[in-house]
Amino acid sequence: MPEEREEFVKKIADIFEATVSDAVKAFEIKKN
After folding, report:
1. Distance (Å, whole) CA 6 – CA 10
2. ∠15-20-23 over CA atoms, to 5°?
3. d(Cα 24, Cα 27) in Å, to the nearest integer?
4. Where are the beta strands (DSSP E) in 1-32?
5. Which of 8, 16, 20, 31 has the smallest CB count inside 10 Å?
């Protein structure tokens, strides 16, 4: 069970990271 949770957390972290970097890129474009 803990292993499955770890995989899930990694997946969420990856999605979160991708979302944040997309938001940062969009913000940078908007700023210029």
Report:
1. 6
2. 125
3. 5
4. none
5. 31
Structure-token pair, residue 28: 């940078």
Amino acid residing at 26: A
Q: Which residue has the tokens 């069970």?
A: 1
Identity of the residue numbered 6 = E
- pLDDT per residue as tens digits for the range 4-31: 999 999 999 999 999 999 999 999 998 8
Domain ranges of the chain: 1-31
pTM above 0.70, yes or no: no
